[in-house]
């Protein structure tokens, strides 16, 4: 395939960015999207130009580092995959592809297509943990009976990889889906009840401090989420928040 790429180039967070056009040729349908960008970068390096900066790590669809806005969609036109698992067979010869970073005030651009998502880490650090009794009288987690439905729902919430697609898909750049997934994975389990009140209050407050918007109720976050995190988690977090607020 021969493709036209319109890629956002930006030196740093303080610089003004712009779309730059590139041509790539000989792209195979079995290539991943990141492999296609590798081909482009090899061409740029050979010409003495700066390669396009983009974030990536495992390239196995489990870390979420590869987040890109492709033709206006987080992670591109496929569903339930991250950008590194998006294959070029989803595009046609002669296509023009727009590639941009995730857009959100709380995700400042580092360079080109790479953004700083440490705001997610600060939300997690504010309450996404449980107390562990290390006194020598600890109880094995497997010895605590948990209804299978609760265990399954907690595991579904825990599959969130914190890629930020929910934020990029939302008109308000809301982090409600991410935060609710991190709240839910503990709220559904007995081990998470110790800090339940403090957790939801701290994580929601930190989310607001980071500058994320409120939920739009349009469901774009769930559709674009590579792990299919359900909107039900947002409803659960709202219930947990209401309960915690009334306890004060």
Give a short summary of the structure.
This protein has 248 residues and is α+β, with helices and mostly antiparallel strands.
Question: What would you say this structure looks like, in words?
Answer:
The chain has 248 residues and is of the alpha+beta class. The protein has helices at residues 33-46, 118-127, 148-158, 165-169, 176-187, 196-209, 220-224, 232-247; strands spanning 3-9, 18-24, 69-70, 73-74, 96-100, 109-111, 114-115. It has 2 domains: 3-111, Roll (Ubiquitin-like (UB roll)); 117-131 and 144-247, Fumarate Reductase Iron-sulfur Protein, Chain B, domain 2 (Orthogonal Bundle), CATH 1.10.1060.10. The strands form 2 sheets. A 5-stranded mixed sheet has the order 2-1-5-3-4. The chain has a two-stranded antiparallel ribbon with strand order 6-7. Helix 3 runs antiparallel to helix 5 (176-187) and helix 5 (176-187) packs across helix 8 (232-247). It starts with a strand and ends with a helix. It is built from 8 helices and 7 strands, in the order ββαβββββααααααα. Helix content is 35%, strand content 11%. The mean pLDDT is 95.
Per-chain topology:
Layout: E1 3-9, E2 18-24, H1 33-46, E3 69-70, E4 73-74, E5 96-100, E6 109-111, E7 114-115, H2 118-127, H3 148-158, H4 165-169, H5 176-187, H6 196-209, H7 220-224, H8 232-247
Parallel strand pairs: 1-5
Antiparallel strand pairs: 1-2, 3-4, 3-5, 6-7
Describe the sheet with the most strands. Answer: 5 strands, mixed
Strand order of the largest sheet: 2-1-5-3-4
Beta strand count: 7
Output the CATH topology of the largest domain.
Fumarate Reductase Iron-sulfur Protein, Chain B, domain 2
Indicate the mean pLDDT.
95
Task: Determine the CATH superfamily of the largest domain.
Answer: Alpha-helical ferredoxin
């Amino acid at each position: 395939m021969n493709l036209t790429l319109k890629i956002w180039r930006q030196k740093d967070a303080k610089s003004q960015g712009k779309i730059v056009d590139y041509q790539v040729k000989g792209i195979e349908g079995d290539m991943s999207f990141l492999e296609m960008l590798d081909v482009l970068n090899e061409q740029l390096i050979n010409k003495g130009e700066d390669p396009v900066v983009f974030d990536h790590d495992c390239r196995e669809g489990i870390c979420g580092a590869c987040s890109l806005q492709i033709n206006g969609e987080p992670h591109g036109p496929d569903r339930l995959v991250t950008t590194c698992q998006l294959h070029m067979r989803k595009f046609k010869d002669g296509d023009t592809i727009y590639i941009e970073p995730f857009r959100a005030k709380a995700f400042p651009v580092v360079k080109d297509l790479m953004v700083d998502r440490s705001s997610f880490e600060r939300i997690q650090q504010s309450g996404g943990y449980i107390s562990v009794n290390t006194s020598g009288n600890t109880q094995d987690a497997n010895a605590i009976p948990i209804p299978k439905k609760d265990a399954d729902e907690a595991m579904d919430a825990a599959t969130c990889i914190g890629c930020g697609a929910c934020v990029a898909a939302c008109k308000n750049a809301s982090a409600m889906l991410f935060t609710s997934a991190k709240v839910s994975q503990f709220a559904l389990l007995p081990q998470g009840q110790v800090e339940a009140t403090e957790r939801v209050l701290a994580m929601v407050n930190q989310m607001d401090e980071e500058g994320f918007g409120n939920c739009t109720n349009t469901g774009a976050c769930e559709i674009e989420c590579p792990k299919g995190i359900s909107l039900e988690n947002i409803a659960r977090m709202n219930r947990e928040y209401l309960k915690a607020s009334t306890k004060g």
